[in-house]
């Protein structure tokens, strides 16, 4: 996965890259608000309480924000938080919050049960999280043996412990989980079960490395920036950034996502990458490669194209277009040499002779044709060869 500055002059390629850039900007749109649960479960029993909060990552704190809540599409409340005390089955449904100004959140499902057992799992799980699963029986009853399963395979026979801890989860931890528990009622223990899926999401997106200038000339000051998007539900997560050139670290991990190149030199040309990680040795992700070519002074001045930045997905390659004056100079030189060569050919061609003056002599000169379209002048110098040029339909004398 690489981005390149290359000497290309196709306007069609520029348009194609521009469309890719617009797609990139669209996918980089701000993340909308998210509904957060406290306690973290979205499955509860009747009579229990739950608090929901509208978490918005795009709020600066400098603007006045209002919050609105919707249940099954209908407005029900205004305020940053929504609390349900002594929940009833009628409180089950799809909840959304909306900031003004701002977008409406995705739906968050709350389920209220009147059963004997529910398996409570976090509604949101992210890479690196430590998850708690709770095999929860209805308050007021006595419970016995509890067993946890993953894809119907036993992962913990916990005795009377009703919680299971899963440490440092990743994408592969996504699965269907289940628990069984014995609940004492009517003088006997009855076994009940419940299950729930867990889908582990990315904590932060794959980083992209960006350049402050569309082209770099010797002596320029430029900035490389490492961009990533952190989940609004994990906005307190501390991220660290490092930069590499040609596979070697040029800036160790720090809280800054910028790397400065002061007074660029040609030795600064190379393949640049940035890496992002959580504090400690948690989740690490590497960006795609950005290839930078530092031009000598004046190399890019003749044809200066606008900067086009393209994001990349794994397995894809993209090109950033720039025109180099060096290529144009080479084209001009080659064209001049071709014109000079053609002029020499025209000067060396034999003069046209009128039919009435020497018809026999002209006829004799072009009678000896070999298989390689070569004619020999047998009437004059035996070492002189005349080559037929199919493009111009004129003979060329080669000594």
Can you tell me about this structure?
The chain is mainly beta and 399 residues long. It folds into four domains: 2-28 and 205-327, Immunoglobulin-like (Sandwich), CATH 2.60.40.10; 33-114, Immunoglobulins (Immunoglobulin-like, Sandwich), CATH 2.60.40.10; 115-201, Immunoglobulins (Immunoglobulin-like), CATH 2.60.40; 349-398, no CATH class. It has three helices and 33 strands. It has helices spanning 11-27, 325-348, 359-365; strands spanning 2-3, 5-7, 34-38, 43-45, 50-55, 66-71, 74-78, 81-84, 93-100, 108-113, 117-120, 125-126, 131-137, 142-150, 153-157, 163-166, 175-185, 188-198, 200-201, 208-211, 216-217, 222-227, 239-245, 248-254, 258-261, 270-278, 284-286, 289-292, 294-295, 320-322, 374-376, 385-389, 394-398. Strands 1, 23, 24, 26, 27 and 28 form a six-stranded mixed β-sheet that branches. It has a five-stranded mixed β-sheet with strand order 4-10-9-6-7, with no helix packed on it. Strands 15-14-17-18 form a four-stranded antiparallel β-sheet, with no helix packed on it. Strand 23 and strand 24 form a beta hairpin. The longest helix has 24 residues, at 325-348. It is elongated and about 115 Å long. It starts with a strand and ends with a strand.
